[in-house]
């Protein structure tokens, strides 16, 4: 099935990155959020990130303007019903996602494929609440979307082969690489990445190392581009905790228990970069470790 028009729900960190790469690949994109402010902020982020690509010689100015012109913001979710594929990238809460799919349902074209960029919610369960579980997929991008090469593709129990092939063809057209994961908690990336981050927090909690020594060890000792605590701040500590809880509940194994120190940071509202403080304090010129 040929996909020309895409709908993206959510103009936040992930949604604006997804709209960015879709528009650059030539898709017409309808970008939806619930407030004008969120849409304006999302579009401003896309422009900033594209300008950075222009300044680094990765894209021509004309290509940037043409890509931006392919993105149409809308506050009306039902407008997305007339697209060939919807990528839901709203808040990572199951009730929110379910409400979006329910609201969209009466407006969808018969062939529209529904996907979710969820990092941890069951695709099978989300799909079962829609009128088209066979045309429903997990479409999981990594942050920052314009830079990261991978998209995880997750089939629900009912997803049909044509839907899978269509999603895979979209990933190919984006110039990214797909990896197929079964629909189990955390899929592949977060099943492996989050326990590593959680272990780094335990390493800090137990006093084995400081924030700096833990991050330096993993950057220089394992060649990771960011240390695990820096990466946790980048992802958002609330997101990290939520994913650990999904692994812990869904796999019922104590090896996934979230570190109490991670919980404490989230309770404090120190959620990482987005709130100005996490394992580092970002409010000054350069990040300063908070422990
Ligand atoms: N949009 C567009 N381009 C961006 C960008 C953005 N938001 N952020 C960085 N870039 C580009 C830069 O322009 C630069 O491009 P060139 O190489 O062409 O010059 C390149 O990325 C590198 O950027 P910088 O030099 O500014 O910074 P860096 O070398 O420190 O790299 C990074 C930044 C790419 C984010 C790197 O630190 C990194 O790879 N970090 C790890 C990210 C990661 O692990 N992400 C996965 C998180 S898990 C997830 O997303 C799943 C989940 O469900 C939680």
Structure description:
With 291 residues, the protein is an alpha/beta fold. It is 45% helix and 15% strand. The chain has helices at 13-24, 36-55, 61-69, 94-104, 123-128, 161-173, 189-205, 211-221, 228-235, 237-251, 260-268, and strands at 5-9, 28-32, 71-74, 85-88, 113-116, 136-141, 150-155, 177-181, 280-281, 288-289. It has an 8-stranded mixed beta sheet with strand order 3-2-1-4-5-6-7-8, with helices on both faces. Strand 6 (136-141) and strand 7 (150-155) form a beta hairpin. The longest helix has 20 residues, at 36-55. The radius of gyration is 19 Å and the shape is globular. The protein starts with a strand and ends with a strand. Acetoacetyl-coenzyme A binds next to helix 2, helix 7 and helix 9.
Question: What are the SSEs and their pairings?
Answer:
Blueprint: E1 5-9, H1 13-24, E2 28-32, H2 36-55, H3 61-69, E3 71-74, E4 85-88, H4 94-104, E5 113-116, H5 123-128, E6 136-141, E7 150-155, H6 161-173, E8 177-181, H7 189-205, H8 211-221, H9 228-235, H10 237-251, H11 260-268, E9 280-281, E10 288-289
Parallel strand pairs: 1-2, 1-4, 2-3, 4-5, 5-6, 7-8
Antiparallel strand pairs: 6-7, 9-10
The structure holds acetoacetyl-coenzyme A (CAA).
């Amino acid at each position: 099935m040929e996909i020309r028009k895409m709908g993206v729900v959510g103009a936040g960190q992930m949604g604006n990155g997804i709209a960015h790469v879709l528009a650059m690949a030539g898709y017409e994109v309808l970008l939806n959020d619930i407030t004008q402010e969120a849409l304006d902020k999302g579009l401003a982020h896309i422009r900033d990130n594209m300008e950075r690509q222009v300044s680094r010689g990765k894209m021509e100015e004309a290509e940037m303007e043409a890509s931006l012109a392919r993105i149409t913001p809308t506050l009306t979710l039902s407008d997305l019903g007339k697209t060939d594929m919807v990528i839901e990238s709203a808040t990572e809460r199951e009730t929110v996602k379910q409400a979006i799919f329910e609201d969209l349902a009466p407006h969808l074209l018969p062939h529209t494929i529904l996907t979710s960029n969820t990092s941890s919610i069951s695709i099978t369960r989300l799909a079962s609440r829609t009128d088209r579980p066979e045309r429903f997929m997990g479409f999981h991008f990594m942050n920052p979307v314009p830079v990261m090469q991978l998209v995880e593709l997750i089939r629900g129990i009912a997803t049909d082969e044509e839907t899978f092939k269509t999603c895979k063809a979209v990933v190919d057209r984006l110039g990214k690489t797909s990896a197929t994961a079964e629909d189990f908690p955390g899929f592949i990336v977060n099943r492996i990445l989050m326990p590593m981050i959680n272990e780094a927090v335990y390493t800090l909690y137990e006093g084995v190392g400081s924030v700096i020594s833990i991050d330096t060890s993993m950057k220089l000792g394992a060649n990771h581009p960011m240390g695990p605590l820096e990466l946790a701040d980048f992802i958002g500590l609330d997101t990290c905790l939520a994913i650990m809880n999904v692994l812990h509940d869904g796999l019922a194994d104590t090896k996934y228990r979230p570190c109490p120190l991670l919980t404490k940071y989230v309770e404090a509202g120190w959620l990482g970069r987005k709130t100005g403080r996490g394992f580092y304090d970002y409010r000054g010129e350069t990040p300063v470790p908070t422990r």
